[in-house]
What does this fold into?
Amino acid sequence: MQHGVGGVSWESSGQHPAAPPQPPIPPAQGWPVPPVPVAAAPPVQHAPMASAAPVPDAATGHVPLPPAVAGTGGATLAVLLIGPAGAGKTTVARHWAATRPVPTAHISLDDVREWVCSGFADPQAGWNDHSEAQYRLARRTCGFAARNFLANGISCILDDAVFPDRPVVGLGGWKRHVGPALLPVVLLPGLEIVLERNAARSGNRRLSDEEVARIHGRMAGWYGSGLPIIDNSHLDVDGTARALDETLARAIAAPPPW
It folds into this structure.
């Protein structure tokens, strides 16, 4: 997967100050000079409001145009990106957050869980009571952070491997932590793509092929659930982020029954 190029924000250009009125030229001695007409000063133009049409530049006539904003635009959202290990959740979530035209935060569950230094439950060591407790704690911490961002007008996107066969612990838990307006989207490429991407990982985030295949198989349960699913097997990061934004825009316009 290759990273795409971030978007560019637009700011309306400022107005050039109006030229001061020209005073009449004083007459030379002995020669009557007709008065020079004084041009009326143009009214002061204030900067347009955000909803007003762009005003052309007074000197050049250039009309500044905002970039075309598609998809979710400037909506304040809380998004949960679901998918197996190796689906590209963290990379896509970070890119989507970085390229939106409004303030958006990316909250990574794995990053928050790794705040635990001494006593960290390594996923490669298998699932146990310690790893279960640390995941629960990380999810609550991420939920608190998401609510704080939303309360201050900042969108957020979280990523997690939520299993459809544990709705109360997974999706239901996230909705309790963040709020009922949470928009979940599933990122589910093919198994061979997931295995390839997992093999490129390093450290404790790289899992065995058997574990990745098991997780991917459980994720297939999201089909038929009503949640939107994006197969990004043949999409790069930028293309997947665009597909995510379009999917979220449709979910805002017509919320699916999840």
